[in-house]
Design a protein that fits this description.
The protein is an alpha/beta fold. It contains 12 helices and 10 strands. Strands 1, 2, 3, 5, 6, 7, 8 and 9 form an 8-stranded mixed β-sheet that branches.
């Protein structure tokens, strides 16, 4: 019996090793890309609202966050939670891009290095991991720019396809729902909301510093009970906050999301580009493509694991 148990363990190890060897070449040097890359740019610790002009081009960097940044750990989760394929889809569809997956430790390290002061203090006070993930997505793109996408997303087409002819875009967002799209009468469904699980931007964009500043203010003004209540996650640093600051950026350039409807995406190249603010808006379903939309603007699948049995919304 003992020899059989040893044999079973050996077989399991060999199978796992084979899977790693099979998937590893797909990453094209992935182990090197997983290392945390720190920006050499200096970061202002001024937490006032800013509307300065960011740099010009969205860099080829993909940022993601998960409990582990090791390929072999993703393989162990094979099955319904198929993050190996999801993660590796990003460098496959964006050849030549740097792909960074931060875990809890490297995320903490990143925040401490670049935001020592009020922002890092607020980050440390957040009691729920998903709140830290929200803050980290804004922070990484503020420092380095590129694409941010949640760990439960799969890339179908790369950044260059998202942009289409709008190669001077400095901020790319997708619509989660249009104004009055849902029958639900909750106030949040009465206005347009942007996807916050996937977006792209140039480094130094004011939207991100404004969002970080808002989170700092909320942390400093809130009780531990409020911050620890998962029902408040989306209002602390989630999609409504994100949408609000994108809208503010548009308004400073005399533009607005308020008049954007489904009809705007039913002609031409199915994109809406705000030339003054350089914000490119993609139609609903572009970043959760398995649920609808047209083939030419299906860019990312989102598997909504936050709603799964062990997801942050259920856990």
């Amino acid at each position: 019996m003992k020899s059989q148990a040893v044999l079973r363990r050996t077989c399991k190890i060999l199978i796992l090793a084979a899977l790693v060897l099979l998937l590893y070449p797909l990453a094209s040097g992935y182990s090197k890309q997983l290392r945390l890359v720190h920006s050499t740019d200096s970061t202002s610790q001024d937490n006032t609202i800013t509307q300065s002009t960011p740099s010009k081009k969205i860099p080829a960097i993909i940022h993601q966050k998960y409990w582990s940044s090791a390929v072999e750990k993703w393989v162990e989760e094979a099955g319904e939670n198929n993050r190996t394929n999801w993660f590796l889809s990003w460098p496959r569809k964006n050849p030549g891009a740097t792909h960074l997956v931060l875990d809890d430790e490297s995320g903490e390290e990143f925040m401490q290095k670049h935001f020592s002061g009020p922002i890092y203090d607020a980050f440390q006070k957040l009691p729920v991991k998903v709140l830290k993930a929200d803050m980290l997505r804004y922070a990484t793109l503020y420092i380095q720019g590129g694409i941010y996408s949640d760990s439960d997303t799969e890339c179908l087409h790369g950044l260059d396809i998202w942009m289409g002819n709008y190669t001077d875009a400095q901020f790319i967002v997708g619509i989660e729902w249009y104004k009055n799209h849902h029958k639900n009468k909750h106030p949040k469904y009465r206005k347009l909301q942007l996807v916050q699980w996937t977006f792209a931007a140039v480094p130094g964009h004011p939207v991100f510093m404004n969002a970080l500043t808002r989170i700092v203010q909320t942390v400093n003004e809130s009780t531990p009970e409020y911050l620890g209540n998962k029902n408040n996650v989306e209002d602390i640093g989630g999609p409504s906050v994100f949408t609000n600051f994108v809208e503010q950026w548009l308004i400073t350039h005399g533009e607005t999301l308020d008049n954007v409807t489904k009809a705007n995406f039913e002609q031409g190249d199915k994109r809406v580009y705000f030339e003054k603010s350089r914000v490119l808006v993609l139609p609903m379903y572009s970043f959760y493509a398995q649920f609808g939309g047209t083939k030419d603007v299906k860019f990312v699948k989102h598997y909504f694991k936050g709603w799964s049995k062990n997801g942050w919304k259920k856990g």
